[in-house]
Amino acid sequence: MNKLFIAAMLVLPAAAFAQKTAPSFKIKGEITGVSSPAKVYLSYRMDKTMYRDSAELKNGAFEIAGKFMEPVSASLQLQVEGSKDRDYTTIYLAPTTLEVKGEHKIAHATITGGEDNKMYALLQSNIKPVNTREKEFLLAGTSLSKEEKATAAYKAKEEAFEDSIFSARKQVWAAFVKAHPNTVVSLDILDSYGGFFPSFDDLSPLYKLLSPAVKKTAKGKQYAQTIAKLEKTNVGQFAPLFEKANPEGKNINLKDLRGKYVLIDFWASWCKPCRAENPVLVKAYNDYKDKNFTILGVSLDAEFTRNAWIKAIKDDGLTWAQVIDLGTEKASDTYYVQAIPQNFLLDPSGKIIAKNLRGEALEAKLKELL
């Protein structure tokens, strides 16, 4: 068994102490029908520390033991030498012996031991009908040609279906959290429930349902901070101020744009959906720049892609103010940007009045306001 943990030096002493006093877990696995050599890798995060462990699969069996500070989800991955398959499953650590039994793949294994694993199995059972609907739709799509899939009608159908699937999943997730507030499985659901663009109105009601014990976990405390960030950037709140440098090195403060409707657009030169959306922004800017409207582009490019950022500004014809989100205090962190493109529309007083306006939705909102 090979153990490794990665941590910042400042948290290392505390983490080491916690490991000595923490409860123990043992994972005993049996995956038959797997060619050798093969290894099973365990990885999990506790607070700011990532722990990793591994064991060889011998005659279809493996065993991994360790310590943990609190209930936490972990990843178990089976890697067969020479195979590129990503075969993994989720397991919740508990102060007991956890049994993993399966055939050929660990992803299909049954996990027993610990209340959280029982709850996770229940969640997977509840969500299975939605996943089946999705698989059937994707399977039906394999019979279509590339030309048929490229039509506007099919793309609209595909987008509507994806929205309906996500909505169905959210219903299952919300019902599960309400019924089972005492498990960290419900806390983990919030990651998926928020999607790429989590909102305060979406997540706060579910977070409030969680039991005090779940909220007191390291992840529970971190989520409280996330909820606070989302509240500060919710529609109706005054947009948090920030100051960043433009391509010439001159700082631009968001406060300096007060008095106009401002679209804060988070993007990056390497982001294909962002670049595809830029023509929409160019049209909106040209149509409304003389009607008290402007845009502030905030790039998530890194220092080593600065030249690509500057080139993208020129190539895409982005003639409004642009800044790059460098430094320790990132605007993207303040606004809890988890995916791009993402935008926030502010009124002349600096209050957030809309979020994530794309395509026709942006045009409609600006037409309504201006």
TrEMBL record:
Q: Which InterPro entries match?
A: AhpC/TSA, DUF4369, Thioredoxin-like_sf, Thioredoxin_domain, Thioredoxin_ResA/DsbE_sf
Q: Which PROSITE patterns match?
A: THIOREDOXIN_2
Location (main, coarse):
other
Pfam assignment, any one: DUF4369
Q: Name one GO cellular component term.
A: cell envelope
Where is the signal peptide, in residue numbers? 1-18
Which keywords label this protein?
Cytochrome c-type biogenesis, Disulfide bond, Redox-active center, Signal
Location in the cell: Cell envelope
Q: Which domain of life is it from?
A: Bacteria
Q: Does the keyword Acyltransferase apply?
A: no
- A biological-process GO annotation: cytochrome complex assembly
Q: In the UniProt record, does the keyword Ligase occur?
A: no
| GO MF, any single term | oxidoreductase activity
Q: What range(s) does the Thioredoxin domain occupy? A: 233-370
> Which residue spans traverse the membrane?
none
Name used for this protein in its record: Peroxiredoxin
Instruction: Provide the species name.
Output: Chitinophaga skermanii
The upper taxonomy is: Bacteria, Pseudomonadati, Bacteroidota, Chitinophagia, Chitinophagales
